[in-house]
């Protein structure tokens, strides 16, 4: 039996028993025409909360996907800023923008006021670590009249409306910040669904927020379970125990009824991050050896089974303009001979393809002369150690436009000295200058060109080796309508999602 087949066989053996019982939910209401209306949705998510539902870290996208939180703006289908809690905005100067708030209510019953929004944004600027959307950005927010909010940045920020769409800059009521530590989104957000109960990270109960400014959601609530095992999520769709399951493993896609399988392009890239601060990969020549050893076409064909494209850069095909503007990396070091160099490679199993990717990369690195120890854990037990540089190499999946929708955002957060999600621990003056230049560039085309120049500088350090550009695969009951398959992976359930 091959390594790949063995892994999938073991994954099937650990299928969580009794999953059906976890998703029992009360009956829904009935509409006037006798059809179902207001039924609760049973949703299986791949990642449990890693930071107690803090809006400032990885949990921010959990909250936005479940329809709990929202920011001043959102992203439309083209990646441009669209109204959310702010119904309009205008740029008053290079550094100042004025936003006009819509009439809205927090889930605790208080009004969304300019002062409350200003306070929420100010607190986000002081969070440690700083939210990825604010990497390298200083801003001040202040109320301006009964519905106005003025935001001033230390330097010109041409993409501020896009930046404020980040899930990590969700607006919460003053009540969220009453206790020390990270703010709580439980009953303090503005979205169509309100968290009412959390069970030690294993599940969450959400009810419809009837006073949502965008109108009442069709579903009366959501019963969410965090099921890290991908085979269990797929089987729950197959047996009808869940209505929606995200991140279906590619190995399970062929086993699902085509009517329940949904696919969509995504800006998510799976990459190998190399620790540039300490250990063997501090040497750029050793990093070059690792990069030369990896063949991403093997990973796309053997692991993703065609549900991905070979790694071309930080941005993949879903970023439609990237390929034509890509710049060839320069300044790469000559590859050293590994000579048995020992390294620890880590990844997580919430995305079931990643351990398989890691096994292939392990084999490729060992063939090149490295000695590789592989560690696979659940993401919430891995993130802090990875960010602290406890591993020599790390394989993760990252949406390149998730944090801000701006192509420069992921570069600042992931690859600059002050980046809040810098898994490679890269601190390179040339890279920082390129990212800073891109961040200060106006004009859509010009900004894209500068982002690609910065990408080339980053790839030139060999701190990151792009492996594959992925697709979204979700399992959705044939009774469900209105699931949101967002290429930015910020949304999954909205007001129109129903069964």
Please render the helix and strand layout as text.
Layout: H1 3-13, H2 19-22, E1 29-30, E2 36-37, E3 41-45, H3 59-65, E4 73-75, E5 81-83, E6 86-91, E7 96-101, H4 114-125, E8 139-144, E9 148-153, H5 160-163, E10 193-199, E11 203-208, E12 221-226, H6 230-238, E13 244-245, H7 250-253, E14 261-274, H8 284-293, H9 296-302, E15 308-310, H10 322-325, E16 342-348, H11 353-368, E17 371-377, H12 383-387, E18 393-399, H13 407-415, H14 429-439, H15 444-460, E19 464-476
Parallel strand pairs: 3-12, 3-13, 16-17, 16-18
Antiparallel strand pairs: 1-2, 4-5, 6-7, 7-9, 8-9, 10-11, 11-12, 13-19, 14-18, 14-19, 15-19
Helix pairs in contact: 13-14, 13-15, 14-15
Tell me what the structure shows.
The structure is a single chain. By secondary structure, the chain is of the alpha+beta class. Helix content is 26%, strand content 22%. The protein has helices at 3-13, 19-22, 59-65, 114-125, 160-163, 230-238, 250-253, 284-293, 296-302, 322-325, 353-368, 383-387, 407-415, 429-439, 444-460, and strands at 29-30, 36-37, 41-45, 73-75, 81-83, 86-91, 96-101, 139-144, 148-153, 193-199, 203-208, 221-226, 244-245, 261-274, 308-310, 342-348, 371-377, 393-399, 464-476. The strands form 4 sheets. Strands 3, 10, 11, 12, 13, 14, 15, 16, 17, 18 and 19 form an 11-stranded mixed sheet that branches. A 4-stranded antiparallel sheet has the order 6-7-9-8. The model is unreliable at 1-36 (pLDDT under 50).
């Amino acid at each position: 039996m091959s390594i790949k087949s063995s892994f999938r066989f073991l994954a099937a053996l650990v299928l969580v028993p009794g999953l059906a019982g976890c998703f029992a939910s009360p009956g829904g209401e009935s509409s006037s025409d006798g059809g179902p209306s207001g039924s609760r949705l049973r949703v299986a998510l791949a990642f449990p909360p890693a930071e107690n539902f803090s809006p400032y870290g990885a949990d921010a996208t959990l909250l936005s996907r479940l329809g709990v939180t929202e920011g001043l703006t959102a992203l439309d289908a083209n990646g441009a800023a669209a109204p959310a809690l702010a119904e309009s905005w205008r740029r008053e100067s290079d550094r100042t923008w004025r936003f006009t708030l819509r009439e809205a209510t927090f889930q605790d019953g208080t009004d969304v006021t300019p002062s409350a929004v200003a306070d929420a944004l100010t607190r986000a600027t002081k969070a440690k670590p700083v939210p990825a959307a604010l990497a390298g950005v200083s801003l001040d927010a202040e109320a301006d009249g009964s519905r106005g909010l003025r935001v001033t940045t230390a330097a010109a920020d041409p993409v501020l409306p896009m930046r404020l769409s980040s899930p990590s800059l969700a607006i919460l009521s003053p009540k969220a910040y009453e206790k020390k530590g990270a703010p709580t989104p439980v009953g303090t957000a503005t979205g169509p669904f309100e968290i009412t109960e959390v069970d030690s990270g294993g599940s969450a109960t959400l009810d419809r927020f009837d006073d949502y400014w965008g109108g009442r959601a069709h579903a009366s609530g959501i019963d969410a379970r965090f099921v890290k095992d991908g085979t269990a999520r797929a089987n729950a769709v197959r047996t009808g125990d869940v209505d929606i399951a995200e991140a279906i493993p590619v190995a399970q896609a062929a086993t699902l009824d085509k009517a329940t399988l949904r696919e969509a392009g995504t800006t998510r890239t799976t990459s190998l991050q190399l620790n540039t601060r300490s250990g063997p990969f501090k040497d750029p020549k050793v990093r070059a050896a690792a990069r030369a050893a990896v063949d991403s076409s093997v990973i796309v064909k053997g692991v993703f089974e065609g549900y991905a494209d070979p790694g071309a850069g930080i941005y993949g095909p879903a970023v439609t303009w990237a390929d034509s503007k890509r710049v060839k990396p320069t300044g790469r070091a000559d590859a050293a001979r590994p000579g048995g160099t020992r390294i620890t490679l880590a990844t997580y199993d919430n995305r079931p393809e990643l351990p398989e990717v890691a096994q292939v990369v392990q084999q490729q690195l060992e063939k090149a002369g490295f000695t590789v120890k592989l560690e696979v854990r659940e993401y919430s037990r891995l993130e802090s150690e990875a960010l602290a540089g406890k591993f020599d190499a790390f394989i993760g999946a990252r949406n390149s436009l998730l944090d801000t929708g701006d192509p420069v955002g992921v570069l600042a957060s992931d690859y600059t000295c002050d980046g809040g999600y810098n898994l490679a621990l890269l601190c390179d003056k040339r890279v920082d200058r390129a990212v800073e230049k891109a961040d200060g560039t106006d004009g859509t085309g010009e900004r894209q060109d500068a982002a690609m120049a910065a990408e080339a500088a980053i790839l030139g350090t060999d701190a990151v080796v792009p492996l594959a550009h992925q697709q979204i695969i979700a399992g959705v009951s044939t009774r469900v309508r209105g699931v949101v398959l967002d290429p930015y992976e910020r949304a999954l359930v909205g007001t129109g999602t129903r069964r």
